Amino acid sequence: MKGNMNNMMKQMQKMQKKMMQAQDELHEMSFEATAGGGMVTVRANGKKEIVDVEIKEEVVDPDDIEMLQDLIVAATNDVLNQIDEKTNATMGQFTKGLNMPGMF
After folding, report:
1. Which of 15, 20, 63, 77 qualifies as a FRET site for 96, CA 20 to 30 Å off?
2. What family does this chain come from, according to its entry (predicted)?
3. Nearest to 69 by CA among 40, 33, 34, 32
4. CB atoms < 10 A from the CB of 83, how many?
5. 3-state class (DSSP) for residue 65
6. pLDDT tens string 53-95
């Protein structure tokens, strides 16, 4: 029985190390989303930090600031959704079958 417990602890430590490596890799990844046919581009890292926003000059209309704001919001939400999907797909492999919803 004691041998099984030690074995299980080693397996858990191994899984924890793999999880941390996967999380580190995710944090290093880059994500990009565009809106308005490429008029607005938002880039983020895997930590959900926005690292760059690019706005094409043609979309800047002082009489329609709301459209530009909407495009920025749309691109930002898209890039954040991409990060969530990648995080869930990557980290979900570690929680499969453990019945621990919402862990990531």
Report:
1. 77
2. Belongs to the YbaB/EbfC family.
3. 40
4. 19
5. helix
6. 999 999 999 999 999 999 999 999 999 999 999 999 988 887 7
Spatial contact of 72 and 3, defined as CB atoms under 8 Å apart: no
Q: What is the DSSP letter of 48?
A: S
- Domain membership of residue 40 as a residue range: 30-91
74 lies in a domain? yes
58 found inside a domain: yes
C-alpha closest to that of 29 among 18, 9, 43: 43
Question: Using alpha carbons only, what angle is made at residue 30 by residues 53 and 79, rounded to the nearest 5 degrees?
Answer: 55
> For position 63, which CATH number holds?
3.30.1310.10
Number of domains present in the structure of the chain: 1
